Amino acid sequence: MQTSILKEYREALLPWYTIYPTVAEFTTSVGADSYEEWLRGLPADDSVSLYLHVPFCQSICWFCGFPTTIARNQGPILNYLDAVRNEIRLVSEKVQQELVVNDVHFGGGTPTLIGAAEFLATIELLRRRFAFREPARIAVEIDPRTFTAEIAEALGAANVSRASLGVQSFDPIVQKAINRVQSEAQTAAAVEKLRRHGVSGINFDLIFGLPHQTVESCVEAAVATVAMRPNRLAVFAYSHIPSVMKNQRLIERTALPDSVARAEQAAAVAETLVAAGYREIGLDHFALPDDELSLAQTSGRLRRNSLGYSADTCKTLIGFGASSIGRVGEGYVRNEVTRESYSRHIAAGRLATSKGYRLTDEDRVRAAIIERLMCDLQADVPAICAAYGFDPTRLLDSAASRLVKLAEDGIVGIETDCIRVRHEHRFVVRAVAAAFDAFLDRVVP
Fold this sequence. Notes:
The protein is α/β, with parallel strands linked by helices. Helices cover about 40% and strands about 20% of the residues. Helix 8 links the parallel strand 7 (about 200-210) and strand 8 (about 230-235). The longest helix is centred in the N-terminal third of the chain and has 20 residues, at about 75-95.
């Protein structure tokens, strides 16, 4: 199975397909004017999801692949938050009707660094500017190292329903190598605070492929995690891209496990979690049987969006904050990446959209096929094309060379153009989805 396709996957050269087309295809031809037009055209009866990006941390984790800023005091955070609140007001004024909100997600960075009072004030502003469907699902990303009782109380008061905790690894050697020292006791204390204040949905993030990581330390982290019984887990593969992320240059490349070791780590963690009662969800998630992700998978409602796997069925996602990504019916938009440029646009009373992408009919069909592969590990290509009134022949012809190679290697089974990823190869589902990516090179050496 050492094909060039699998080599692409293991070297992290393929997209994660949280959205399609990917951000690499966004251009300046879609800007603030396009976004304003799309907002005004939102259907009155559609619910929306909101995403608020808070790009601040108290320290930089060397493995991190997201742009964040060290917050040494509250000044920059409060200034940024003022801009976000102004953007909330600006967007709410652009739409023709009061938008109904199903889901809200605070991401980062570390969103809880804005403090309890500011968090509650932001939630209150959102509730004034939009019509929250009750109970709306509110989720927040958390760093257990900076999580306080005061913040936990505020999350409870705001009716936050889910918290996602960064864990990565419990191995002290690995933690030191990635500049994220976090004890099991800190994580357990954060979980206890959350549950005590009514935040019942708990997510953990684990990572394999980190420096000095072994199968044994990965399993130990999974066992420790199971003892805290989070509702769901994301188990990500570390992507080492120091040419893009300067902080990753502080990680010793020679300490990273090779592709074979990474595959063994992923399999060992999956085996441990499944044995503990978790269900496998798509590429890299696990959930308890009664979690909404498991229920969505069972009913065929599992989705994949810019935040990963989700039970959120809203077609519209409105992003607030620097670099946030949104989607409306016509396509994708992304805000200015730097805080300075983002804040200047908002202060001038205009939307901060810097790039975007207008979807074509073919994009929508390809996106639907890719999403079903990523979520269900299978896709009935003719049925999906029929739902969009699209002839499947051209899509199947363009994907043929890659699919044939994958079938020869036993990774997929193909029957009447219904493609199924074999369960034991779920970790390489991106290589299957890539067959339907019109923007990738179709030549397979």
